[in-house]
Amino acid sequence: MRIEDAIQQTRPFRNARHKATVNIIFTNNWIQEQIKIELKPYGITMQQYNVLRVLKGAKGPISTSVIRERLLDRMADTSRMVDRLHQKGLVLRQVCKHDKRLVDVSISPEGEKLLAGLKNINPGLDGILDNLTEEEAELLSGLLDKVRG
């Protein structure tokens, strides 16, 4: 669906860059909604899923500030997300050995188990871009990288 139709745009965009920007924002929101639908049965948010993936990829416990640097959404309240994940038993917290003011976070066995089960949503996540060929998806990814410089 063309962006003009999706947002019921009646006037032309200022230029192609304006149109592309609006399209990226609209598509980002659409993709996030599709991901939320996939995650809902597992009782976690997209941001919490991202934290668990960051922790899974870490070589050991890491601080909340390191987690924040690695998140896709850096505006998220990392401490609060870690607290919620800890309440759910999905992460472990311990006082940092090098700096007692910091807390190191790692994924718990229960969090590992949840992530293993979340592999079931991979086809659904991949399906979000089913309208693109592999080559088109690669091109899109390269263009988005180029936008960010």
Topology at a glance:
Layout: H1 3-6, H2 16-39, H3 46-57, E1 62-63, H4 64-70, H5 78-87, E2 91-95, E3 103-107, H6 109-118, H7 122-127, H8 134-147
Antiparallel strand pairs: 1-3, 2-3
Please describe what this structure looks like.
With 149 residues, the chain is mainly alpha-helical. The chain has a domain at 44-147: Arc Repressor Mutant, subunit A (Orthogonal Bundle), CATH 1.10.10. The protein has helices at 3-6, 16-39, 46-57, 64-70, 78-87, 109-118, 122-127, 134-147; strands spanning 62-63, 91-95, 103-107. A three-stranded antiparallel sheet has the order 1-3-2. The radius of gyration is 19 Å and the shape is elongated. The two termini are 28 Å apart.
What's a quick, concise take on this entry?
The chain is mostly helical and 149 residues long. The protein contains eight helices and three strands. The chain has a domain at 44-147: Winged helix-like DNA-binding domain superfamily/Winged helix DNA-binding domain (Arc Repressor Mutant, subunit A, Orthogonal Bundle).
